[in-house]
Amino acid sequence: xxxxxxxxxxxxxxxxxxxxxxxxxxxxxxxxxxxxxxxxxxxxxxxxxxxxxxxxxxxxxxxxxxxxxxxxxxxxxxxxxxxxxxxxxxxxxxxxxxxxxxxxxxxxxxxxxxxxxxxxxxxxxxxxxxxxxxxxxxxxxxxxxxxxxxxxxxxxxxxxxxxxxxxxxxxxxxxxxxxxxxxxxxxxxxxxxxxxxxxxxxxxxxxxxxxxxxxxxxxxxxxxxxxxxxxxxxxxxxxxxxxxxxxxxxxxxxxxxxxxxxxxxxxxxxxxxxxxxxxxxxxxxxxxxxxxxxxxxxxxxxxxxxxxxxxx
Length: 312
What we know:
By secondary structure, the chain is an alpha/beta fold. It folds into 2 domains: 24-163, Rossmann fold (3-Layer(aba) Sandwich), CATH 3.40.50; 200-287. It has helices at residues 3-22, 44-60, 68-78, 87-96, 144-158, 202-235, 250-286; strands spanning 26-30, 34-35, 63-64, 101-109, 114-123, 128-138, 195-199, 238-241, 244-247, 293-300, 303-310. Strands 1, 2, 3, 4, 5 and 6 form a 6-stranded mixed β-sheet that branches. A hairpin with a 2-residue loop joins strand 10 and strand 11. Helix 2 (44-60) runs parallel beside helix 5, helix 3 crosses helix 4 (87-96) and helix 6 packs antiparallel against helix 7 (250-286). The longest helix is centred in the last third of the chain and has 37 residues, at 250-286. The model is unreliable at 7-21 (pLDDT under 50).
């Protein structure tokens, strides 16, 4: 191979390496590794070291783990321990860590001497990014921590940590939305017919006629009452002393007072009835037989037109 060809090959590989190194990684917030059962003699220091190895292997697999301060604060604010079975737990964990994904992994050592790792990845909007995957490896004579490292590495490959998108995919526009035709404006309703109010004079005639009848009746009754009162007063025994008429006794005095009262009431009724009848006769006689005035109301846009007509 010529030197020039080797130089070009090295240049291509270098550019590829730089591009790969600069490619954005998906932010993954891991729930603490759950060690269910371990080998005897596995100390607290071993557990802490396994937790650190868990985070290191996650970074090597292509996940960008939040810094320690954000990681620790997210776990304190989560306040729930059901991420093994509830996707909502991982969704909240991702949101509190401001990460796009959250990861749950458990490791168990079976009585058959096998190490099993189970895990899944959930996005911060609740969508399962990587469904549950399981890796099982026989422990054999290898150290437990080495077997755990092995199963975690294989699990991260199956979960496709390095292939998780660094940003949330853009949802495609829906194509099944039914097309809605534009609403056509409704035709305006036809104008209302004009309202015509006419004064035909019928009210005046009716009022005049009623006054004639009522006034005449009152006058007749008044005349009768006045006549009765005069008769009662005339039948009372009286004596005239000069210009004064004096009743002969108590009975005559009562009859005289009653007769005068009835005569006065009758005369008043006769006069009032006569006046009412006269007014009614005038109204009745002067009422027009044809309409003397009319009012027409015609609706128009934003209002109405009022027209007056007739004889005034």
